[in-house]
């Protein structure tokens, strides 16, 4: 896997993935930015959420669950000072569908957290306190 990050100006950077996609990262005004993109640490949090959500949906689909929607709400704390890495991340998965089995959703979340999500495993190895919860929303 490869990526490239180019400085634009101030504290704005353009990240380019090896797959050909781009994203703008920028800082807050008090750090010299213009608030024109996500912060780098927000990108990490979004990446964890994306990685875990990919797993949860894939596992549920393979389990023949009728998933209509899935999102994950992430809540994180960072250490005071510099550097300020994440110290805690909680992921709440909200899965909507028809006749979803709560035990299957719980299993998918657990498998993502312990076996499949490389980003989550990496964070735990770095000492981040990761926790997960889920909610099942039944659709008519």
UniProtKB/TrEMBL annotation:
Transmembrane segments: none annotated. It comes from the Bacteria. It holds the Pfam family OsmC. InterPro entries: KH_dom-like_a/b, OsmC/Ohr_fam, OsmC/Ohrsf. This is OsmC family protein. It comes from Simiduia agarivorans (strain DSM 21679 / JCM 13881 / BCRC 17597 / SA1).
């Amino acid at each position: 896997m490869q990526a490239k990050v180019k400085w634009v100006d101030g504290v704005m950077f353009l990240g380019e993935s090896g797959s050909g996609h781009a994203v703008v990262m920028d800082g807050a005004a008090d750090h010299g930015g213009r608030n024109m993109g996500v912060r780098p640490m927000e990108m990490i949090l979004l990446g964890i959420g994306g990685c875990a959500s990919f797993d949860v949906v894939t596992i549920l689909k393979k389990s023949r669950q009728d998933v209509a929607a899935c999102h994950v709400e992430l809540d994180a704390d960072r250490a005071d000072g510099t550097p300020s890495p994440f110290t805690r991340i909680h992921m709440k998965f909200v899965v909507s569908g028809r006749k979803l089995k709560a035990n299957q959703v719980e299993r998918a979340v657990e498998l993502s957290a312990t076996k499949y999500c490389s980003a989550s495993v990496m964070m735990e190895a770095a000492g981040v306190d990761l926790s997960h919860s889920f909610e099942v929303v039944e659709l008519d």
